[in-house]
Write the structure tokens for this entry.
Amino acid sequence: MSDEKKVSNAEASEFFYPSDEIVSNAHIKDYDSVYKRSIEDPEGFWAEEAEKLEWFRKWDKVFDDSNAPFYKWFVGGKINIVHNAVDRHLKTWRRNKIAMIWEGEPGDVKVMSYHALNREICKTANVLKSMGVNKGDIVTIYMPQIPELAITMLACVKIGAAHSVVYGGFSVEALADRIASANSRVLVTADGGWRRGKVTDLKSIANEAMDRSPTIEVCITVKRTGHDVHMENDRDFWYHDLMALPIASPRCATEVMDAEDMLFILFTSGTTGKPKGLVHTHGGYQVFTATSHKYVFDIKDEDRWWCAADPGWITGHSYLVYSPLVNGSTIMMYEGAPNHPYPNRWWNMVEKYGITILYTSPTAIRGLMRFGDQWPRRHDLSSLRLLGSVGEPINPEAWRWYHKNIGADKCPIMDTWWQTETGGFMICPLPVTPLKPGSATKPFFGVQVGVIDEDGNEVAAGEEGKLVIKRPTPGMARTILGDPERYEDTYWKEYAEQGWYKAGDSARIDEDGYIWVIGRIDDVIKVSGYRLGTAEVESALVSYPDVSEAAAIALPHELKGNAIHVYCILKAGVKGDQKMANDIKKHVSSEIGPIAKPEEVHFLESLPKTRSGKIMRRVLKARALGIDEGDLSTLEE
Ligand code: WTA
């Protein structure tokens, strides 16, 4: 038998089949027929799903491609995601259902019904209104994982404003940049949050960022940690003070929005320049995320859903806050570190709250796996029926550990491939899909993917190529805020003729039609599942006084998936040493955030560049890995 044959047999024998119980209870029992239908008649399929939501006015047209690639969905429809996520549940028994269970790192707990959640949202919405927030404004939110984060997001949207959530792990420069790009007048933040037993000083970072942000007029601060913070007269208000005023009435009408009105922007790292603010909208996004959440995780009313992502990233937007609430689920949210005070923290919460579905990242799994099986073994995890993974490819070793030790060999793992740009799951199994560890399996309904070579032709089974999405889906971002041209150039231009979307990832499809996503092929780095751009890291590096030029690359890392390695050319006459290397690491961390901290700093005399002056990062990478440097014909010597 040839070696190749052996490999594919090994892959085939790796199938994990769902139990009869899972199959017989699943919303969708036959993937193939529903998938076929969704591709043959996508408009019919999506219209049927959209009808399960409440609309203020029904759409005139499901899909409009007259101005490609600026596609529109549910044109003419009037809706607001808050109406479907909260208001409509208040008319049913779900009014008294638990909407959110939240646990702070120190152990404090808050439990809120849909009724209580609605009151908090209304009060906050009225506070925002009193601060002059209008329909169409973009409010920047910079908070730890506390209930007020989700409440503020929903309050903005309720009154027709959009939000821009900046991940609480980002630092001064990153926050200031995002405030400026969103042109925000109002910032909502907190004094701090708890992480590994320590206070993260968000308000100081926010203050510094606001010093660089002339657009901010009002800053509302939630008191979480109670440590001393500086409050600026006339600009800074405590959230609890405002919530105690008569203006903060618990009744507030939900604004009627157009299906294509902006819901939120979320900045994400791209290949060049500043992070781009992707624009998501009310209609298509809620149809797509609610449908994918319901079918992929087989959501039932009795579920307790825990998406352990931070709301500051797209996973937290789509699958912690929005789609689970639209589906009327009970959501779990936790503030702090998974291993604080001990590595059983998560497993303890699964047991304590009876979590039925856990959705997290390979990095988190690898991080907890390292502490050993004894930690999950101390807990009764039998409430779990499904598991999920997102953010980066999951290595089969972590998959098997998760499946065996957390899922007791009975919980299927939904490995979901998607992006900030796609809004929701694009490649993922259903609970009934036979699984192969490390493969995100098949395209979701309405999604058509291809893996192609340099010339745009499909590669053979098992071969690696570029991943493209062959048709638009309702949840996709509509544009980049203020820069539609960049949206078109980045995603649609290369395959404009075919109308394909460029994902920026490489992948292969095996003989069984299973898709294996390999990783980014552009200058985006995934560190611990978090998305960063080489351009951002490089811009932070050259803002260090002694660095004149710099390049950043990703190299494999056992826990983080990838780690950032940087190469610096210093100004003439300056000599680099270990002390400076450490100082540069600290500098990057304080400019962007701890997630961007370089693993290693190297000093070089020159960087490999093309004749036109572009840094050839792939050459640096090949050299670091000791592999073939590939085609060097464009390298300037
Ligand atoms: C990577 C996160 C393999 C991929 C939702 C993608 C994955 C990028 C997976 C988007 C997965 C995400 N398997 N790779 N299941 N999920 N990725 O925008 O490289 O933060 O392009 O969205 O994460 O990252 P983003």
Observations:
- The longest strand covers residues 547-557.
- The chain has a mean pLDDT of 95.
- The CA atoms of residues 66 and 72 lie 9 Å apart.
